[in-house]
Structure formats: C-alpha cells, structure tokens
C-alpha cells in the first residue's frame, strides 16, 4: 500500500479513457493553432469527430488548408476550414473570429536529450504572438495551452492578456490531461484493472518533478503498488513518460498522439460544462490560490468546470508522506518556471 492512504479525495474525477460525451444540446466553434503539426493533425481529427464541435478552424503557417480539406471528408457535422497567413480564407484573425475555444499546440517538438525548457525560447515567441491576436480578436474565448513548457507558456499568455486588459483567469488552461491518462494507464496495468476504472488525480505542473501523481487517492488500485522501488519507478514513469516516447520514436517525434487525445478529452469536458452540464471535473493547470503564498501562482489540481470556465478549484486533499515529499520538490521548481515565463514576456513584449 502507498504510504498513508488518503481519507478523502480532493474531488472525484471521471476517467479520461472515455473520449467524447455529447449530453449538452449546443455546439462550439473551436480553433486549433498549429493544426498541421504532430499534435495538431490528430487533435484536429479528434475534434472533427466530437459531436459538440460545429465549426472547426485550423490555422498554421503552412499546410493547414490541406489538413482541413482532408479532415473535411470525414462524415461528421463540424464545418472545417483551413487558414494560413496568406491564404484566401484569411489569416489568424479570421480563424479566431467567434471562436469559443482556442487550442494552442503550436511549437517545436522535443527531440532526444531535450528538456521542455530547451524548447522555451522558440515556443515562448510563438505562444506570445498567438496570444496577442487571440486577446485582440477573441478575448472571451477559452484558451487551452498545450505548447511546452506549459509551466511557463501559460503565464506568458496570462501576461499578454493582462497587458491587453482582457485577462480572465477562469478562461485560461494549461492542458495537463496527459499526465492523468498516463497515471491511469500505468497504474491500471499494475493493478490488473481497466484504465476506465482507475482515476488518479495529478497535481502541480506539467514537466518532470513538478508532476505529482496522487496515487494514494486512486481507490483500490493504490493497494497494488508496493512502497519503495515499485512506487518510485511508477512515479518516475508518470513524471517522465514523455521521455519514454521520445526515445521509442528514435528521434523522429515526441508524444504527439497521446497529447492530441488528452487535448481532445479536455476540450470536450470544457464544451460540456460550457453548455450546461453540471459536475464536470478535470485536472488542469490554472491560476490558483492553493500554493500562491509559496510562489506557485499557477498550479494544476482538480477543478470543476462551468459556463465561464473554472468554476471551482479543489484542494489537493489528504496526501501520503511520499506525496508530501513530491509536492515539496515540485513547488520550488514550479515557482521558477512561472517566474521564467513572466520575466521573458516582460523582456520580450
């Protein structure tokens, strides 16, 4: 058993293994920025298959119209249009007009030996420029940031929106759903259970030691993990699952397909909540009061989603002694990542 089993969970989460639900009656306009990339293409295909998406706008510096033409042949209702900087359909501003949700997977992928921080300068510039246009054209849209390093790029978006005078912390999300799906998948394999029956809240941030899986809150499955080496290996695998994929792809890519799936899961949850479904809970990296006094002004934890975005931020809840140590290691690193993003956008407005 893992340390002290939690007496209660921070908030009940549904399993992320069930991709789409369409209980809501209204639909959404979704824009994907970076739609022709390794994450963008499969993410766009998954969103085309989501019954809640009516209008799907795909933007990239190249190939987005082709991706849109390809996806538009899928026999689902979403009207799909591709946009490029100089294309006949219009550029980025046109793609964002009337968007309810903007998903940003744009950026360069990780290669072997690269950390998320190695991607920082390139992706920070890309995210900043996209955020500037979003703040101008669609300031009330929900922004879902996938571009790494999420710990820093989300604060960059926040600073851009603050400067434009349109920042609403309830509408800005760092997508950390992949950490949740990995934890569910890996733990369920050890426990011999269906991934859909194993839900693990993952809190903190979205890179390395800032990722804190609360395995003690995973119900009966937590009992299958022995303290010591097995527990430590499982935590490490959840924290550094992206490295596993980069290595397996032998330098030819990163965790693009699983990240696309995770992005689609979170977008669907947000759409359901925005259209009136109650009790929609997911983990996400948002502006948070939970560890603000320690400098972690953004923090991932279970949140309840509503029509305006973040409806309620739930506390971490009771944790084991091992998880307390993980949090103690995560928060200082997270603080540095946040400060790095804020400082960068101040120096590169």
TrEMBL record:
It catalyses: (S)-malate + NAD(+) = oxaloacetate + NADH + H(+). Residues 176-343 form the Lactate/malate dehydrogenase C-terminal domain. Residues 30-174 form the Lactate/malate dehydrogenase N-terminal domain. One of its GO terms (molecular function) is L-malate dehydrogenase (NAD+) activity. One of its GO terms (cellular component) is mitochondrion. PANTHER family: MALATE AND LACTATE DEHYDROGENASE (PTHR11540), MALATE DEHYDROGENASE, MITOCHONDRIAL (PTHR11540:SF73). Transmembrane segments: none annotated. PROSITE patterns: MDH (PS00068). Substrate binds at residues 110, 116, 148, 182. Its EC number is 1.1.1.37. Keywords: NAD, Oxidoreductase, Tricarboxylic acid cycle. This is Malate dehydrogenase. SUPFAM superfamilies: LDH C-terminal domain-like (SSF56327), NAD(P)-binding Rossmann-fold domains (SSF51735). It comes from Acaromyces ingoldii. The active site is at residue 206. Belongs to the LDH/MDH superfamily. MDH type 1 family. Gene3D superfamilies: Lactate dehydrogenase/glycoside hydrolase, family 4, C-terminal (3.90.110.10), NAD(P)-binding Rossmann-like Domain (3.40.50.720). Homodimer. One of its GO terms (biological process) is tricarboxylic acid cycle. NAD(+) binds at residues 34-40, 60, 123, 146-148, 259. InterPro entries: L-lactate/malate_DH, Lactate/malate_DH_C, Lactate/malate_DH_N, Lactate_DH/Glyco_Ohase_4_C, Malate_DH_AS, Malate_DH_type1, NAD(P)-bd_dom_sf.
